[in-house]
Design goal:
Blueprint: H1 2-12, E1 16-26, E2 29-39, H2 45-65, H3 68-87, H4 91-105, H5 112-121, H6 125-136, E3 144-148, E4 162-168
Antiparallel strand pairs: 1-2, 2-4, 3-4
């Protein structure tokens, strides 16, 4: 989702040069966070919120025609990335940090990385479509939209000050 979002907002519409889309796990509650930094004089935060909503609708349509084969390639790339994180430099420190995090959260799932890899392997495009439709277009949607505005756009010189629009699902 990151690349199509960046392509839409940064390249095609030229509304921002900083777009982030990440999955979040806050105390066992999974969420999707979209963060966009915009220049104050380019558009309002409400307009950016509307553009994000439009992107989510178009992404849903993109998923409808997305082939399983392409998803398999993405899954393989993600698995390789996760495996590299496990065996990268500072392996022992990473392992200690992961285990300590499990203890601090009182979840004690010390094989979380391995379970994530297994879960990624089993994702099917139909399940992804169903989840997207059910979660982002259905009754389960819970949206928090934060608009952080520093100064009135008329008062800002063209020195590149940014407004942050954070949308979490």
């Amino acid at each position: 989702m990151q690349e199509p979002l960046r392509n839409q907002l940064c390249i095609q519409e030229q509304l921002s040069n900083k777009v982030f889309c990440v999955c979040r796990d806050d105390n066992g509650v999974l969420g999707l966070s979209i963060t966009v930094h915009i220049e104050a004089h380019k558009c309002t935060t409400e307009y950016m919120d509307q553009r994000i909503e439009e992107f989510l609708k178009s992404f849903s349509k993109m998923l409808e025609v997305f082939p399983q084969e392409e998803l398999n390639i993405i899954k393989e790339t993600l698995i390789i990335k996760k495996l590299k994180q496990c065996i990268s430099g500072g392996f022992l420190k990473n392992e200690v940090d992961r285990n300590w995090s499990e203890i601090m959260k009182r979840q004690y799932m010390f094989d979380r990385s391995e379970k994530k890899i297994v879960a990624i392997k089993h994702v099917k495009i139909e399940e992804l479509r169903e989840w997207f439709t059910h979660t982002l277009n259905g009754n389960d949607l819970r949206k928090l939209s934060l608009h952080v505005i520093g100064t009135d756009p008329k008062e800002i010189e063209a020195n590149g000050e940014y407004i942050t629009v954070l949308v979490e699902f």
